[in-house]
Design goal:
8-stranded mixed β-sheet; 6-stranded mixed β-sheet; 402 residues; alpha/beta; globular; single chain; 14 strands
Length: 402
Amino acid sequence: MTATRVLVLNSGSSSVKYQLLDMRDSGRLANGLVERIGEQSSRLRHTPLATGGESRERTGPIADHDAALKAVAEELAKDGLGLDSPELAAIGHRVVHGGRRFTEPTVIDDAVLAEIERLIPVAPLHNPANLTGIRTATALRPDLPQVAVFDTAFHTTMPEAAARYAIDVETADAHRVRRYGFHGTSHAYVSRATAKLLGKAPEEVNVIVLHLGNGASASAVEKGRCVDTSMGLTPLEGLVMGTRSGDTDPAVIFHLARVGEMSIDEIDTLLNKRSGLIGLCGDNDMREIQRRIDEGDERAKLAFDIYIHRLKKYIGAYYAVLGHVDAVAFTAGVGENAAPVREAAVAGLDSLGLAVDDELNAVRGDGPRLISPAGARVAVAVVPTDEELEIATQTYALVKRH
């Protein structure tokens, strides 16, 4: 029997998202989420997609990631999809930071684990949780290939002019200070899906991808290769996000430390968790912000305007970087669902060939679709992202090669 199934794991600090796929047709067999790991109120929600069964929930304390993955395995086994199945080809893990070394999916061994651990200082919130998930899954199926797919990998094609900060080279190299970028699996998937929507190969198009969720990033993709992206050393740089500031004068940190007498940890919390939309208006849900704008809330309107202003600046900047743009693609929670954001982001950019058709933009749908007017010089698209499928595809292709 040929093993064609891939289990995708996305391990966070207190959660595990998972999806089981059959790579013969990229079909989803099951998915789920374990959240609040380590608390008394832990919850596992599991959906058996292959059988069309109803979702199941388990509540109660789940002590750690080991217990969480064992609970996931039990739920999968109830549907005949257990981790002991001979049809399971590999387990693919989302790993947030791969530094400069990992430019493609990688079979995990002790050396790979050591390097992921060595990168913890530049991804302190994510890499430790990713490591925990890998080690737990390996203990459950030590005979199975474990594959790391890195958020940063797609962006390793950036030229040095885009990847380096303008600081002392020796200091930067000593401490690995450079622009790495994140959301790479999403940008890779969406850029290729956009090319397919246009009826072309990825190598034939230039695409600006706008991944707009609670975390948000933009990328300039030239003929299938990333040449610039908005996030940097960490996911803090770039666009205005749900709780992150995005681009900020570095001297703001010095000012807050000296004049505001804030500690480094307090400033870190401010910029990562109390800034962006939630810092500007108290909400980080774009639907709620839009509702408040409709009711005349000026603070919500200002937050929206700042969000759009930054987004529009990046569209213009990446247009200049690419020189020629075939499409702008909106994706992720806000990008896929917030028509007012898409409309406002390209408003006034007619001279660049960018516009949206109001009726097409208002239509909600599950698949990739164009929202630009017929005959537009630059296509504007909504392309739902599928990071799990991207991870599974890369994992399965690597396992087949080996």
